[in-house]
Structure formats: structure tokens, C-alpha cells
Amino acid sequence: MTVNALRPDSTRLPRRLALLLPAALAACSGPASAQRGLPDFADLAERVLPAVVSIQVTSREQPPATELRGTPLDRGRRGQLVQGAGSGFIIEPSGIIVTNGHVVGNATRVTVTTQDGTEYPARVVGVDELTDIALLKITPRGPLSAVSLGVSANVRVGQWVMAAGNPFGLGGSVTSGIISARGRDIGAGPFDDFIQTDAPINPGNSGGPLFNMAGEVIGINTAIYSPSGASAGIGFAVPSDLARPVVEALIKDGRVDRGWLGVSVADAEEQGRRQRGALIMGVERGSPAARAGLRQGDLVTALNGQPIATSRALVRGVAGLPPGETVRLTLTRGGRQQDIAVQIGRRPNDNQG
């Protein structure tokens, strides 16, 4: 399966666009309300679009690695400036905007354009790489239209949704569809819990909102399944319930502090069958795990009494804990079960668990 993050889009449409055949036009004629069973999204779009923004990004590509790196001849080499586009939505009238981390991750300049065409320079408040969520701040002349995060736990497969954003750099656009699935793990990271939708989303939609029919944001459009690079009717959104604490932390502190053990882990197998638990494959020197006495080969089966079924569950459970908290790990070592107390550390960006 090919899963593509919705990278900031720099594609320009061709001068000529193919027109739909007259037969197709005839089949789609008439107001949406006249089509049995299909909702009319016009009122919803009119209400929420003022809070949806387009994001233009200038970033610098890293120059390719060469044998000259680190030598005097390597000095002064700079990557090429590239431009991209993404989407976002205003979460507070004062100018707080939510988008994807991969939209602004390496940005040297970010410009936000609101629905009325006003452009604002934007500051990156913070980025959480594990959930691919970023927060921007602009300084508007007055209060802006804003939308709120809904409760994604309440969404059901088959419910109507509307995606909004800046596909292919076109500016404010909406598409509609349904919730196709929940809880999708696409291998993006330990916090994978994506909402899947068939509402068409494309490059440039990154960071845009996925609305329920009440006008609440229940997801942040992040990735698509696409053999061609364009919408194939399978898109993925970060659920609002996962995004909410991240957004709150970024507003408060500009960062998300996550727990860390300092171990590499894998799913355990015994005689070709998967065991429940997370197998410790390595322990980083000087890490919280090392100080607590964890060893390679330990099988962690519970965290604070809650069963751990997979290595991903352990990484996700630890990452969700505040640094400094002492937890109880239940593990099997040499065929015997025991509990070990571990004081959780602060997670570096490049570590697993």
C-alpha cells in the first residue's frame, strides 16, 4: 500500500482544464437537496469556510551529502529554496491556527491567507512530530472566525463529513464524503489512530479540517492512499481527540513533553506465534530504563497494571506520560514475573520508546 503524506503542494494547473461531458452535466443538474438521501453542504460551508486558511511555505532543501562535508570546501553550501502550500484552520479568534507538522517543519517563511484574501506573516509556535500537528500564530487586525474541535470518539462509520482546504494551491475548497473506517494504523508512528474518509483530499489539503455536519472539526487531514499522487478516495485524518491535548500543550508551552524509557522494542514471538507483550531488544546507556535495571530480553506485559499487548502499545503508553512520573512495569524475565519501578524521562525526538 502506498500512503503519501499530503506534502505542501507546488503544482500549477494546466492552462486548459478538461470539461465534463454534457451527459455527466445533465446527470448532476439540479439542487443537491433534490437528490434523495444526499445532504446539502452549502450552509455548512458558508459557516465554517471563514475559519479555513491557506498556508504558503518557503523552505530550504538540505544540500545532498558529499565527500566534501565537514571540509573547508563545504562551507557556504546552501540548499535550494522551495515553495509549497498547505491548509489550516483558526482555532482561536486571536489568530491561533492548527495545521500539519510536515507543512511547516523546515519553513524559513510562512504566510497565511484567510478566506477574504488577507495575507498575514505567521510564526510557528510549535510542532509535535509524533502526531504531525503544528500550531501557527498570526496577528490579525481584529477577531477572526474560528471553529472548535469536536469529539471524534462519537463519529460513526458511514456518517457524512466535509473536508476543506487548499488543494493544489487553489485556495478555499470543500469536498464531501463519509467516514470509511476508524482506528487506521498506516505505519506513520506510535500514535496512529487515523479516521479514514472517502471525501476527496489532495496535495495542498494537508492540515485542513475534516468537519462533521455540526461544523465541528473531528479530524485534521494528513495523508492519502494514492498510487498516482492524487486522491483515490482513501484519505486519513488525525482524530480531534488525539489532537486536542497536543494543541493545548502547544498553546501553553510551545512543545509537547513526552515520556521516554530509552529502549528499543519489538513484538514478541514464541515458536512462530506472537506473544502478548513488548520485547526489550536494547537498552540505551544512561537512560531511565538502564537506571531502573531493565535488560535486553525482558518481556514487558503491563504498564501501571494495564496490559501491554504490543511494542507499539508500550511506546504509545510511555510517550503519553509526563516526564518525571514514576511508573510500574510488569515484566517476565527468565520465566519469572516481576515489577520494576521506572522514573520516566523526557523523550528526545529521535528515540523509539
Written description of the protein model:
The protein is mainly beta. Helix content is 13%, strand content 39%. The protein has 6 helices and 21 strands. It has helices at 22-27, 42-48, 101-104, 240-253, 288-292, 311-319, and strands spanning 3-5, 52-60, 81-92, 96-100, 107-113, 119-128, 133-137, 160-165, 173-184, 194-197, 209-211, 217-225, 235-239, 259-260, 263-270, 273-283, 299-303, 306-307, 326-333, 336-343, 345-346. The radius of gyration is 23 Å and the shape is globular. Mean pLDDT is 84; it is low at 7-34. This is PDZ domain-containing protein.
Backbone CA Rg: 23 Å
- Percent strand equals 35-45%
User: What is the molecular shape?
Assistant: globular
Going by helix content, strand content and strand pairing, the class is mainly beta
**What is the spatial order of strands in the main beta sheet?**
8-9-10-13-12-11
Q: Would you report the number of β strands?
A: 21
Number of helical runs? 6
- Cα distance spanning the termini: 26 Å
What is the succession of H and E elements?
A: EHHEEEHEEEEEEEEEHEEEHEEHEEE
Q: Tell me about the biggest sheet?
A: 6 strands, antiparallel, barrel
Helix content: 10-25%
Per-chain topology:
Blueprint: E1 3-5, H1 22-27, H2 42-48, E2 52-60, E3 81-92, E4 96-100, H3 101-104, E5 107-113, E6 119-128, E7 133-137, E8 160-165, E9 173-184, E10 194-197, E11 209-211, E12 217-225, E13 235-239, H4 240-253, E14 259-260, E15 263-270, E16 273-283, H5 288-292, E17 299-303, E18 306-307, H6 311-319, E19 326-333, E20 336-343, E21 345-346
Antiparallel strand pairs: 1-12, 2-3, 2-5, 3-4, 4-7, 5-6, 6-7, 8-9, 8-11, 9-10, 10-13, 11-12, 12-13, 14-21, 15-16, 16-17, 17-18, 17-19, 19-20
